[in-house]
Amino acid sequence: MNRLALAAFAVLWLCGASVAQTPPTVQVLETYPAGDTVALARNQNFYLRMAYASDHPIKIWAEPYFHGEQAHAGSNPSRTYSGSGEALGWFFLMDADARVDEVRIRAGDGSPSGTHEVARYAVDVHGGASTVSDADKPDWVTKLSALDKAAQRADYEKRMNTPPSGGDMALFGGFMLLMLALGIGGFLAPAWGLWRWRGGWRLAAAVPVVLMAFVVLRIVAGTAIDPTSHNLWPFEVLSAGALSVGAMIVLAIARRIWSEPRT
Q1: pLDDT at residue 11, rounded to an integer
Q2: pLDDT (tens digit, 9 = 90+) per residue, 101-140?
Q3: Integer CA distances (angstroms), 261 to 255, 257, 258, in order
Q4: Contacts (Cβ under 8 Å, ≥6 apart) of 159
Q5: Residue 227, preceding bond cis, omega within 30 degrees?
Q6: Inter-residue contact 32 to 138 (CB < 8 Å)
Q7: At what angle are helices 166-196 and 233-259 packed, to 10 degrees?
Q8: 10 burial class (0-12, 13-18, 19+ CB within 10 angstroms)?
Q9: Residue 3: its pLDDT value, please?
Q10: Orientation of helix 200-225 relative to helix 166-196, angle to 10°
Q11: Do the beta carbons of residue 118 and residue 89 sit within 8 Å?
Q12: Which residues contact 1 (CB under 8 A, 6 or more apart)?
């Protein structure tokens, strides 16, 4: 092996070593309510205090399961963690009959290939009729909840204070132009068909016209009764416009095919 090949091999090895990442570790330290069998009160969360360690930024999700299937329950979103420390996971039952027999903890970047199950915690959780006071919560629930809220607030403020890039503005502008074209085309395309076509094709072109007229009249009548009933009326017009344009394209193709002289 010559020196050039050895140098190339060394560079590739160093690059591979630099991107290699040690899998994160997550361990459940304690829960609230505590115990192997827990009856959750109405609107009560089950909290997990977890210790994590990772050499790269990760998110951590605690997902409730019952008999190997996702339980009928809601679970926590996640902020980004790095290094080592403690994380808060939680879930709640969505109805009184829901049950949980284990919590599967996943960690990673949120993508299918970059997120993996790192731990399981066995616990029997079901709904109960008792009530619970916030005063019973341990300090770690309050502390970790406050850290999560502060991180979410900081992330929101960062997004709001970050100006959009040129690519984002171009993409948004192109999207708005496309939506405007669909809205206008929803009226013009069938009008063109009514003007140029004859016979059954003219009647077919009248269908999108009736659709667009119905949508507009519905918005006008609805807002006359309740001004807040169609706050998203531009999207209603655009949806109808896209359907109208699509119908006219299909009709134009069909008319061309069936109108061609046969030999």
Answers
A1: 41
A2: 999 999 998 888 889 999 999 999 998 766 666 667 899 9
A3: 12, 9, 8
A4: none
A5: no
A6: yes
A7: 50
A8: exposed
A9: 52
A10: 130
A11: no
A12: 9
Residue 115 · residue 109 · CB < 8 Å: yes
Euclidean distance between CA atoms 126 and 100, whole angstroms: 7
Q: Pick the residue with more confidence: 58 or 224?
A: 58
Cβ(17)–Cβ(32) below 8 Å = no
Cα-only R_g, the chain:
29
CA dist., res. 108 & res. 114, Å (int) = 5
Q: Spell out where 67-169 has E strands.
A: 69-70, 73-75, 81-93, 99-108, 115-127
SS (H, E, C) 4-70: HHHHHHHHHHHHHHHHCCCCCEEEEEEEECCCCEEEECCCCCEEEEEEEEEEEEEEEEEEEEECCEE
C-alpha dist (Å) from residue 245 to 92, 181, 219, 234: 46, 10, 20, 16
Say if residues 47 and 31 touch (Cβ distance below 8 Å): yes
Tokens of 228: 């807040």
What Cα–Cα distance (Å) separates residue 80 from each residue in 38, 84, 111, 213? Answer: 29, 12, 14, 49
Indicate the pairing of strand 46-66 with strand 99-108.
Answer: antiparallel
CB 50 within 8 A of CB 88: yes
Q: Amino acid letter at 20?
A: A
SS3 262: coil
**DSSP states along 159-207:** HHHSPPPHHHHHHHHHHHHHHHHHHHHHHHHHHHHHHH--THHHHHHHH
Q: Is the pTM of this model over 0.85?
A: no
